[in-house]
Specification:
This protein is α/β, with parallel strands linked by helices and about 270 residues long. The protein contains eight helices and ten strands. The protein has a domain of about 70 residues. The strands form two sheets. Strands 6-7-8-3-9-10 form a six-stranded mixed sheet, sandwiched between helices. A four-stranded antiparallel sheet has the order 2-1-4-5. Helix 3 runs parallel beside helix 5 and helix 7 crosses helix 8. The longest helix is centred in the C-terminal third of the chain and has 18 residues.
């Protein structure tokens, strides 16, 4: 995969990346070789059926899973030089999982600021940054609460704030709203788009929800069942900012129908 010059500075580059797991001596392929490039400030969605390898691909981008083959480059740096993760490349990444993974004995603010504390940042600076991000994600006023006092949606907002606390260049989201009810999930789709628009941070989101993918994405990458591969790369030409009204537009329904048909074509016998 070649760069075309400084004007195209790929934020994420994936070349020939594949993953095979060892199951009691048997080789189980999870991902076929994948080539992919994501530009700065793009919001890209990995869409596919359960078990297709989209989370594995995201975790390889995030440095949590080492590829069996191929290379991952983050902001121009090899993520696995010599088989070890590059700390500078890792520092560009923030990640949010389906479970918010907040520490129950810490306040919301302390959870958000924890990465700063681990890096020795002074308490006053930690508190100021946590307060700023709590405002940005819509949980101002809850900084002193414990996670158990928050709704599921508010806990995920806190998890997003924590992922942003170190000013990452790339945000990785692994079905962060998958466990939420439909109403809360739709509200957080709108909030995530607002946060992304304000930050313009390169974002990769994993989901199996077609309407969520179309609502949020600049590009949707459809993956096949395991061993996963990218079978479609679809640009989403809907104007931004997007609100609930876009859900009733013919163009929105046409895109969701096209992607649904692609998923049916690759999953149904």
């Amino acid at each position: 995969m070649n760069r075309t010059g400084p004007e195209v500075d790929w934020q994420i580059e994936i070349a020939g990346v594949a993953k095979t797991y060892d199951d009691d001596g048997a080789k189980v392929p999870a991902l076929q070789p994948i080539d992919l490039a994501i530009r700065p400030r793009e919001l890209v969605v990995l869409l596919g059926p359960s078990g297709c390898g989209k989370t594995t691909l995201l975790r390889m981008i995030g440095g949590l899973v080492r590829p069996s083959a191929g290379t991952v480059r983050i902001a121009g740096r090899d993520l696995w030089p010599g088989g070890r993760r590059d700390k500078t490349a890792l520092a560009a990444l923030g990640m949010v999982f389906q479970d918010a993974n907040l520490f129950p004995w810490l306040s919301v603010a302390d959870n958000v600021a924890l990465p700063l504390r681990l890096r020795g940042v002074a308490k006053a600076a930690r508190r100021a940054r946590a307060a700023e991000l709590c405002r940005r994600v819509g949980i101002a006023g809850f900084e002193r609460r414990r996670p158990r006092a928050l709704s599921g949606g508010m806990r995920q907002r806190a998890a997003i704030a924590r992922a942003l606390v170190l000013h990452p260049r790339i945000l990785l989201l692994d079905e962060p709203f998958g466990a939420l009810d439909a109403v809360t999930r739709r509200q957080l789709n709108i909030e995530l788009q607002r946060i992304w628009s304000a930050q313009r941070i390169t974002t990769v989101l994993v989901t199996h929800a077609i309407d969520e993918a179309v609502f949020l994405a600049d590009r949707v990458l459809v993956m096949s069942p395991r061993p996963g591969r990218i079978v479609r790369d679809t640009g989403i030409p809907l104007d931004r900012p997007r609100d609930r009204r876009v859900l009733s537009e013919p163009a929105f329904h046409a895109l969701t129908d096209e992607l649904a048909q692609t998923l049916d074509d690759v999953t149904l016998p």
